[in-house]
Amino acid sequence: MTTTRRIAIGAGLAAGLSASLMGGAATAQDTVRIALVAKALGIGFFEAAARGAEEAAEELGDVEIIYTGPTTTTAEGQIEVVNSLIAQRVDAIAISANDPDALVPALERAMQRGITVVSWDSGVAPAGREMHLAPSSDQLIGETIITLAADHLPDEAGKVAVLSATSTSTNQNVWIAAMKEYMADTYPDIELVATVYGDDLADKSYRETQGLLQSYPDLDAIIAPTSVGIVAAAQAVQDAGKVGEVNVTGLGLPSEMAGAIESGASESFAIWNPIDLGYAVTTIAYELATDAATAEPGAELSMGRVGTATLDENNEAAMSEPFTYDASNIDEFASVF
Amino acid sequence: MTRFLKSREAILLGALLALVFLAETRFSGFAAPGNLVRIFNDTSILIILALGQTMVILTRCIDLSQASNLALTGMVTAMMNAAMPGLPVPLLILVAVGIGLVLGALNGLLVWKLDIPPIVVTLGTLTIFRGLVFLVSGGAWVNSHEMSAAYKGFPRADILGLPVMSWIALATIAAFAVAVNRTSLGRAFYAVGGNPGAAVYTGIDVGRTRFWAFVIAGGLAGLCGYLWVARYAVAYTDVAGGFELDIIAACVIGGIAISGGLGTVTGAVLGALFLGTIKNALPVAGISPFWQMAISGTAIIVAVAVNRRRTPGRIILKEAKA
Question: Are A119 and A96 in contact (CB under 8 A)?
Answer without folding.
Answer: yes
